[in-house]
From TrEMBL:
GO terms for molecular function: acyltransferase activity, transferring groups other than amino-acyl groups. Residues 5-267 form the Thiolase N-terminal domain. This is Acetyl-CoA acyltransferase. The keyword Transferase applies. Keywords: Acyltransferase, Transferase. PANTHER family: ACETYL-COA C-ACYLTRANSFERASE, BLR7806 PROTEIN. It comes from Micromonospora pisi. Belongs to the thiolase-like superfamily. Thiolase family. InterPro entries: Thiolase (IPR002155), Thiolase-like (IPR016039), Thiolase_C (IPR020617), Thiolase_CS (IPR020613), Thiolase_N (IPR020616). Residues 277-396 form the Thiolase C-terminal domain.
Length: 398
């Protein structure tokens, strides 16, 4: 049987909103990681059967198929196709799943999966066209039938342009799992601490391709890490989603810019073309849950992935659960009874940032590096996504 292996993984540093990557067009950011991927693996871009690129806000600079434009911007042969997909925050993780499926099925031999989001240049929500005038929901997403289905459900604002609100979902999660403000703040502080320790130790350096941003200047380090934050400072932040809530900007992922790319092929093709397999894509699933609370998807997705893999949670050496909001990984821990010491060991999106369409590939790149550094056989990645969905991926170190 054909398998699917990852033979290369690279990412940009993650920039804060209006930070170090603000001057870089998202197509150029994407092209940068494509070139770095080819240089670091030794793959011939002419051999790439497809580039599958995740991006959430596909409008403005990220419109007109940013995946194909990235190929052209990278200087790769015009014969290399590219496409762009949106599974919300999990877009580039889904890109990896599609790439693996294409390789395993024999439809392709070498596929590049990844994604980008420049949330500085294309702000979240830019793709929503709010009507200048008129009644009803003309011009808005979701439509009347979706709004009617969930009207009256707590957390669903039927008359808002976007009735599903992730921040409200995070508050509902905290309430359901009994998570306190102190627990969320402590988790957020720990994320910054782990990310700072990893950065100071140079653990991120092998996975990052520094980005030229000016003459002779390269942006080379994640800049969202807050080394000076404290529990006292976090406790001072407002709770914007509920007046009496527990979720703050400090316990939420940062708005960010970044891109990442992964090369996927079969073991046989890699051997014949001199590429080094890093890990096998063992299991790849997608699941869905309540779209109003929205963020619980990683729990059923993890259960589905473990069931299909024939593995127990105790056999997984590292878990990357995207820190969209602190209640997400904390509720996941409570439901899975996983070892908290194996969770997001180098920090997560609260500290490193969450460039939507690029986050899935960024997280996989970081997890693979951690697995290789520590000889970990199995790793699991999962992300909550808009609409109540979640991808889960189990990879096996080779």
């Amino acid at each position: 049987m054909r398998d699917a292996v990852i033979v290369g993984a690279v990412r940009t540093p993650v920039g804060r909103r209006r930070g170090g990557l603000a001057s870089v067009h998202p197509v150029d950011l994407s092209a940068h990681v494509l070139r770095a991927l080819a240089e670091r693996t030794g793959l011939d871009p002419a051999d790439v059967d497809d580039v599958i690129w995740g991006c959430v806000s596909q409008v403005g600079e990220q419109a007109w198929n940013v995946g194909r434009n990235a190929v052209l911007g990278a200087g790769w042969p015009e014969t290399v196709p590219g496409t762009t997909l949106d599974r919300q925050c999990g877009s580039s993780q889904q890109a990896l799943h599609f790439a693996a499926a294409a390789v395993v099925s024999g439809q392709a031999d070498l596929v590049v999966a990844g994604g980008v989001e420049s949330m500085t240049r294309v702000p979240m929500g830019s793709s929503i066209q709010v009507p200048a005038s008129g009644d009803g929901t003309d011009g808005l997403p979701y439509g009347d039938q979706v709004r009617a289905r969930y009207r009256g459900v707590e957390g669903f604002a039927a008359d808002e342009p976007v009735p599903f609100n992730q921040g409200v979902g995070a508050e509902l999660m905290a309430e359901r799992w009994g998570l306190s403000r102190a627990q969320l703040d402590e988790f957020a502080l720990a994320s910054h601490g782990k990310a700072a320790a990893a950065q100071d130790s140079g653990l991120f350096d092998p996975e990052i391709a520094p980005v030229p941003v000016a003459d002779g200047v390269k942006f080379g380090a994640d800049e969202g890490i807050r080394r000076d934050t404290t529990l006292a400072r976090l406790a001072e932040l407002a709770t914007p989603f509920r007046a009496d809530g527990v979720v703050t900007a400090g316990s939420a992922s940062q708005i960010s810019d970044g891109a990442a790319a992964l090369a996927v092929t079969s073991s046989d093709w890699a051997r014949r073309h001199g590429l080094l397999p890093l890990a096998r894509i063992h299991t790849a699933v997608v699941a869905a849950d309540d779209p109003v609370i929205m963020l619980t998807g990683p729990i059923p997705a993890t259960a589905k992935a473990l069931r299909r893999a024939g593995l127990g949670i105790e056999e997984i050496g590292v878990y990357e659960v995207n820190e969209a909001f602190a209640p997400v990984p904390l509720a996941w821990l409570a439901e899975t009874e996983a070892d908290p010491d194996r969770l997001n060991p180098r920090g997560g999106a609260i500290a490193l940032g969450h460039p939507l369409g690029g986050s899935g590939a960024r997280i996989m790149t970081t997890m693979l590096q951690h697995m290789r550094d520590n000889g970990i056989r199995y790793g699991l990645q999962t992300m909550c996504e808009g609409g109540g969905m979640a991808n889960a991926t189990i990879v096996e170190l080779l």
